[in-house]
Each structure stands twice: as C-alpha cells, then as structure tokens.
Amino acid sequence: MLSAVTKCLLSNSVAGIRMMSHSSLSGKVAIVTASTDGIGLAAAQALGKRGAHVVVSSRRQANVDKAVELLRSEKIKVTGTTCNVGKSEDREKLVNMTLEECGGVDILVSNAAVNPFFGNILDSTEAVWDKILDVNVKAAFLLTKLVVPHMEKRGGGSVVFVSSVAGYQPFQALGPYSVSKTALLGLTRALAPELAQSNVRVNCVAPGIIKTRFSSALWASEDMVDEFKKQLSIKRLGEPEDIGGVIAFLCSDDASYITGETVTVTGGMNCRL
Ligand SMILES: NC(=O)c1ccc[n+]([C@@H]2O[C@H](COP(=O)([O-])OP(=O)(O)OC[C@H]3O[C@@H](n4cnc5c(N)ncnc54)[C@H](OP(=O)(O)O)[C@@H]3O)[C@@H](O)[C@H]2O)c1
C-alpha cells in the first residue's frame, strides 16, 4: 500500500507538490508560549522544520537563550524573548516584539501551564485557584485576544491550546489543574465559531503522559510507569515530539477544515467523556 502511494506521488509530481505545500508553514510566523523545554520546544521544532519563523519564550532568559541556540543549530528561523504568560505586560511585550521583528503573526500555540497544588481538592485555596486559572486559562484567552486582530490583517490564522487528558478525566490529587484543562476544551469550542468568520481556526491538543520535567513526578518510578502502561494501547509513555507534530499539523493547511476540535494524543488512553 505504502509503496503504491509513493509510486503514485513520484509519477504525479503535481500531487506531490500539493501535499508538500499543504503541510509547509513557509512564510508563517508562530508564537509558541512556554517553548524552551518539553512540549513547547518540540512544537517550536516541528513548526520550524516546516518552515515557520518561530518566536520562543518562557520566564527565564537563560532558558530562552539555550532554546534559541538549539533551534538555530537546527537551521530554524527563531526569535526569543522572556514572557511569563501570567503577566499582561509580558504578553504585550511578546506580541509587540513578534510584530516588530517578524512583521506579523499567523500562529499561536498557547502551551504554558502551572500546577502549584497536589492534594484533595477541598484543601486547595483561593490563591491556588487564582494562579492556576490566571496562567492556564485566562492567559490563553487574553493572548488569543491580542493576536487575533493581527491574524485578521494577514487573512487568517491558527490557534492551538495545550490541554491534557486530565481535562477529560481529572487526575487524582490534581483537581484544580484538571479543571483548568477542561476549561480549555470549552474555550476552544467557544472561540471557534466566532473566529471562523475571520478565517482563524481554533483547536486544542490533549496530551496523555508525556516524559517532561513537568510530569516527572508521574513517571518517577518503574512501578508508576508500569501502572500507567496498563491504561495505554501503545505501551510507552509519550515523548514531546509526539505532541509537536500534531500541533504543527493543526496549524497547517492540511487541517484547513478542522476547527473547534480537541485531538487527544495519549497512546490510546481511554479518555473520552
Ligand atoms: N508532560 C505531560 O505529561 C503533559 C500532559 C498533558 C498536558 N501537558 C501540558 O503541556 C504543557 C507543557 O508542559 P511540559 O510537560 O512540556 O512542561 P516542561 O517540559 O516542564 O516545560 C515547561 C515550560 O514552560 C515554561 N514555563 C513555565 N511556567 C511558565 C509561565 N508562567 N510562563 C511562560 N512559560 C512558563 C518553562 O520555562 P521557564 O521555567 O523558563 O519559564 C518551560 O519552558 C502544559 O500546558 C501542560 O499542562 C503536559
């Protein structure tokens, strides 16, 4: 089957070019938040390898410098700045710098999240909820609001939120974080119809357990990994690249008829409501 498809593409160069151009992001400018490590960095790499100019950011300058150096070594067009997405002045700085240095913006990947609380949900405080909702939900919306007028000037664009499998089925001891991730599923659906009028697509990815620093407490021991594997069809934990490619797909013209959707990328974990 695969060899037949390859043969067809080789003998039909127009189809080949069409396929390539639809996944290409050449000429696009992509802001990816929290992109100096883990899933955000993998998304920046996937977008950059498809030709986008990526704007990477996170809270710490040293992390930004390291990510910029890595992406440049991979021949990716990249600009970097610090941005704590929970601060309005930082969000504005990120968008203004993108406009000044890259001439516009076509793609927003809102990836940043925090989780300052483990425990019974009734023990969580107002300060915990404020922090989680500010960074994980409100910042995603407010950044979208900042970039959409500039996407409209370029004829459209694409927004991708990074939710979690926990948004479908709350993880034990991670109640407030899980609820914030459910809110992103709703935000995706609330924004998509309104922004479709401006040719801006809004989608979401819900990763399963991906091996990053953020999730390290979940895969700290072999026993825990074995326990998770029982819930998976693909018997390994995910890697950041497993998510980066899906994000790049959602931002590309290959996904031009997809909006308001959340794609679960979980290795087959049963997570649908
Ligand atoms: N890993 C998983 O299993 C998993 C599963 C489902 C969903 N997710 C989601 O995936 C996203 C990324 O997580 P990850 O696992 O890739 O994390 P990670 O590897 O630990 O990377 C976190 C990144 O976020 C930056 N960051 C942290 N707080 C920030 C803030 N307030 N503003 C801007 N940048 C910030 C960090 O850099 P600085 O320290 O320099 O700020 C770093 O670049 C999150 O939304 C998370 O909820 C992860």
UniProtKB/TrEMBL annotation:
Pfam assignment, any one: adh_short_C2
Aminoacyl-tRNA synthetase found in the keyword field: no
Keyword Lipid metabolism annotated: no
InterPro entries documented for this protein: NAD(P)-bd_dom_sf, Sc_DH/Rdtase_CS, SDR_fam
Record-level Gene Ontology MF annotations: carbonyl reductase (NADPH) activity
Keywords carried by this UniProt record: Oxidoreductase
Signal peptide region: none
Family: Belongs to the short-chain dehydrogenases/reductases (SDR) family.
PANTHER family hit by this protein: DEHYDROGENASE/REDUCTASE (SDR FAMILY) MEMBER 4 (PTHR43943), DEHYDROGENASE_REDUCTASE 4 (PTHR43943:SF2)
Protein name stated in the entry: Dehydrogenase/reductase SDR family member 4
Organism encoding this protein: Chanos chanos
Organism lineage: Eukaryota, Metazoa, Chordata, Craniata, Vertebrata
Gene: dhrs4
